[in-house]
């Protein structure tokens, strides 16, 4: 029958490495679950430091995602719909934060937005705005590393969308803005939603750029990943495991929510 899946024997030379790769990915997660202090889990989750770090993480990740949506959706539209010289270069620059070590990204943000930075010195002298080592700095750092996830997802959705609807709207006299808001956005809404979720998850787990650009101050810039690091450094392994478990649960929840988009076999 067309579309039927044909069962066949898997060569042992492929099966053994495949099982090894699966074990390699799953074993650390199993170790985290095995080491979790289940008897004291609830009491540790309600500790003031944990609640504070979780609240700050949710807030900054949400604000960073909102910033990425405001900047990333128009940027993705330009890359998908407008032909201009240097478009490949622009697309390559957008993906740089994906491969750039996060600490390097934090240093770059300091050099650009710090009090003596390229733009930061002007912001400080003109408006009295200082971003490093503030909650706003956390949002900026998270948005910097998370924006490419949104742009790539939305651009892919735009390229896969049927442009005939946009062309029909244009022939009926709709302006580019009306077409964008009433036709294009509804067409690519699933892609925007998926990109937004990935963006939020990446922002929630950001560590290197945050600690470099915003520091690690409880209640101000200490997000969950930074709290994990500090708890581990203080010798409280159980506390670090509990914090890590929260981030693991968030990651699994996001994958479960996106299973129809990524995990469904063709």
From TrEMBL:
<dbReference type="InterPro" id="IPR035906">
    <property type="entry name" value="MetI-like_sf"/>
</dbReference>
<comment type="function">
    <text>Part of the binding-protein-dependent transport system for molybdenum; probably responsible for the translocation of the substrate across the membrane.</text>
</comment>
<keyword id="KW-1133">Transmembrane helix</keyword>
<feature type="domain" description="ABC transmembrane type-1">
    <location>
        <begin position="54"/>
        <end position="256"/>
    </location>
</feature>
<keyword id="KW-0500">Molybdenum</keyword>
<feature type="transmembrane region" description="Helical">
    <location>
        <begin position="133"/>
        <end position="154"/>
    </location>
</feature>
<feature type="transmembrane region" description="Helical">
    <location>
        <begin position="92"/>
        <end position="113"/>
    </location>
</feature>
<keyword id="KW-0812">Transmembrane</keyword>
<keyword id="KW-0472">Membrane</keyword>
<dbReference type="InterPro" id="IPR005667">
    <property type="entry name" value="Sulph_transpt2"/>
</dbReference>
<dbReference type="InterPro" id="IPR000515">
    <property type="entry name" value="MetI-like"/>
</dbReference>
<dbReference type="GO" id="GO:0015098">
    <property type="term" value="F:molybdate ion transmembrane transporter activity"/>
</dbReference>
<keyword id="KW-0813">Transport</keyword>
<dbReference type="InterPro" id="IPR006469">
    <property type="entry name" value="NifC_ABC_porter"/>
</dbReference>
<comment type="function">
    <text>Part of the ABC transporter complex CysAWTP (TC 3.A.1.6.1) involved in sulfate/thiosulfate import. Probably responsible for the translocation of the substrate across the membrane.</text>
</comment>
<feature type="transmembrane region" description="Helical">
    <location>
        <begin position="240"/>
        <end position="258"/>
    </location>
</feature>
<keyword id="KW-1003">Cell membrane</keyword>
<comment type="similarity">
    <text>Belongs to the binding-protein-dependent transport system permease family. CysTW subfamily.</text>
</comment>
<comment type="subunit">
    <text>The complex is composed of two ATP-binding proteins (CysA), two transmembrane proteins (CysT and CysW) and a solute-binding protein (CysP).</text>
</comment>
<protein>
    <recommendedName>
        <fullName>Molybdenum transport system permease</fullName>
    </recommendedName>
</protein>
<dbReference type="Pfam" id="PF00528">
    <property type="entry name" value="BPD_transp_1"/>
</dbReference>
<feature type="transmembrane region" description="Helical">
    <location>
        <begin position="54"/>
        <end position="80"/>
    </location>
</feature>
<dbReference type="GO" id="GO:0015419">
    <property type="term" value="F:ABC-type sulfate transporter activity"/>
</dbReference>
<keyword id="KW-0764">Sulfate transport</keyword>
<feature type="transmembrane region" description="Helical">
    <location>
        <begin position="12"/>
        <end position="34"/>
    </location>
</feature>
<dbReference type="GO" id="GO:0005886">
    <property type="term" value="C:plasma membrane"/>
</dbReference>
<dbReference type="InterPro" id="IPR011867">
    <property type="entry name" value="ModB_ABC"/>
</dbReference>
